[in-house]
Known about the structure:
Layout: E1 2-11, E2 14-24, E3 29-33, H1 40-47, E4 55-60, E5 63-64, H2 70-75, E6 78-80, H3 93-98, H4 109-114, H5 116-136, H6 152-164, E7 170-174, H7 182-199, E8 202-206, H8 210-216, E9 220-224, E10 227-232, H9 234-238, H10 241-261
Parallel strand pairs: 3-8, 3-9, 6-7, 7-8
Antiparallel strand pairs: 1-2, 1-4, 4-5, 9-10
Domain ABC transporter: 2-250
GO molecular function: ATP binding; ATP hydrolysis activity
GO cellular component, one term: plasma membrane
Amino acid sequence: xxxxxxxxxxxxxxxxxxxxxxxxxxxxxxxxxxxxxxxxxxxxxxxxxxxxxxxxxxxxxxxxxxxxxxxxxxxxxxxxxxxxxxxxxxxxxxxxxxxxxxxxxxxxxxxxxxxxxxxxxxxxxxxxxxxxxxxxxxxxxxxxxxxxxxxxxxxxxxxxxxxxxxxxxxxxxxxxxxxxxxxxxxxxxxxxxxxxxxxxxxxxxxxxxxxxxxxxxxxxxxxxxxxxxxxxxxxxxxxxxxxxxxxxxxxxxxxxxxxxxxx
Length: 263
């Protein structure tokens, strides 16, 4: 699905992504972990077209998509969410979903004036689809609430719902669990698994909650200092010496090993 080849993104002398190469397989839920400052979000931003790479390539289904703007990637089915949810606070939850599909009939002045029946029919179809999405995500009771009034976790579900309003192929989720209580995080996790298994979505997930990663993700990729350190199952990555050192530092790593050796 996605192949990243020797990707670099520099900010002056700082190499936020420094030669990262990785593969996200079709139909997978791939976890992306690493300490703060590892380059994970910058990598997402480059893949999703929010930042141009300094060098390297991004391939999607055999097509070079390097540097394409977000709206073109959106049309190809590549979507991303953000650490802080981006909602239209003055609109209802249902209306937030209805806004997602591009090139709606009501966006043109001609249709708004002279083709009102077609506009109304499309809006009804979008409202019905939005209600189906809300039911899938178990938040139908929020449909008529202003998006500004729902909780942080519910806003993360709303962002996931936006991806369901279009024909998403791959969705990049950036710290979907940040600021979310455990109950809602489980709901989000259930929705991701169902979208993966029932609708064929491919996901790549940045997350610091290792229990969440272990439950959902295979494979797991670990980054540090802009590079890919390890890739494999969650147990293989967690037990990798380089990963342990990246998270704990050499001193703590050796202390952990000594404590393990002495029982």
